[in-house]
Amino acid sequence: MADNGDIGTSVDAPQKKGRKGGRQNGPPAPAGAEGEAMSKLTDQLMGNPAFMDALKAQLGGQLGGAGDKAEFYRSLPKQCKKRVGALKNIQLENQELECRFHKELHELECKFESQFLALCDRRKAIVAGEYEPAEEECDFSLAEDDDEDEEGEGEKEEEKKEEGEKNGANGDADKLADSVAAKVSLKDSEYDESTKGLPQFWLTALQNVNSMEGMIEEQDVPILKHLQDVTCTLQLEPVGFILNFHFAENEFFTNRVLTKKYLMKIEVDREDPWNFDGSEIFKCEGCTIDWVKGKDVTVKTIKKKQKNKKGGQVRTITKQVKAESFFNFFNPPQLPEDGDEEVSEEVAQELAQDFELGLFMKETFVPKAVLYFTGEADELDEEDEEEYEDDDDAEADYDEENDPDYKPAEGEQPQECKQQ
């Protein structure tokens, strides 16, 4: 028997009168024998499952709610439902084929891994100052950059000329000030012409990631200055990947490599096959950081006063609590061993953000680190967003009346010909 739900309640609810002198909230109820007959008929209809299903379907169609979609399918003839079953079997085959595609894609990634890691080694050698690239290796430009450089040089020459004419004798003083400012800037950034490699390459790249803003705390910076390389290694079985953070010897911890492991599944859930969307991270594992005593930035010591309830004496106790730090990345919350045990909303959200960050590090940050070091990566993202915004604006501003290529659909009259 179908559930009457809210519809039955609303139909059966008595109509209330308004305040004295006000409008009645519904039509007046029939009086006498006619009213009793109407009430009895209503009760009979409300208890009829077929009538209630039909009423719900009718109301659902009128209101455009989700219920009318399910009712539509249930109302199909038996033979049509059988065809839908055949289509679902085809859809299931499609899901299985997509699953195979993603498995082979991961195998292909693993096949090319050694070549990608070789490029990472070359990058590391230049960043660390172990290898000085030849002049021809340093000569990099894009056609777009060349055009911009030519335009930029012309603009700069014109600006210098105008500035010189304007400032006259002050020009030499400005040049001296610019020279001093440039030297101060180089000194502050620890870069000059004798600099070996690219110091703080990875710290700068991490700080330039918009999505990681707020993760790197002030106390993390001195430690991350020792970060020499970040690499990603793939796993075939179990499917997954490992992020490796390579550090120089430092005063904070004894580890030379900190790791973060992500496990993935590429399979169609037979109980819920339609939600398959490729490879999916389902678990992550951090590592133990061997902190030097007193250097652990992931905890902080707080003092708290306690008062004895009986004697009234006050004592001060100290305890350690978790502190905000980038290095909490290596100590993620763990899922319960019992798969049936519920995960709190807070932990689920934290893990979802962690999985998203791990995938970003693998797919984007590690391979494109130089673009984050220069700040170009986020600029490209912003340009993409602006392009989409421009497309939206263009669509909003589109005027079919003034479009010479606009052709009305068959049977449609041009705007000026339509009847008012």
Element layout with pairings:
Layout (H helix, E strand, L loop, with lengths): L4 H8 L19 H15 L2 H15 L3 H8 L3 H50 L7 H4 L4 H25 L2 H19 L12 H7 L13 H4 L2 E9 L4 E8 L9 E9 L14 E6 L13 E9 L6 E9 L22 H21 L3 H6 L1 H22 L23
Antiparallel strand pairs: 1-2, 2-3, 3-4, 5-6
Helix pairs in contact: 3-4
What would your notes on this structure say?
The chain is α+β, with helices and mostly antiparallel strands. Helix 3 crosses helix 4. The protein has helices at 5-12, 32-46, 49-63, 67-74, 78-127, 135-138, 143-167, 170-188, 201-207, 221-224, 345-365, 369-374, 376-397, and strands at residues 227-235, 240-247, 257-265, 280-285, 299-307, 314-322. The protein contains 13 helices and 6 strands. Strand 5 and strand 6 form a beta hairpin.
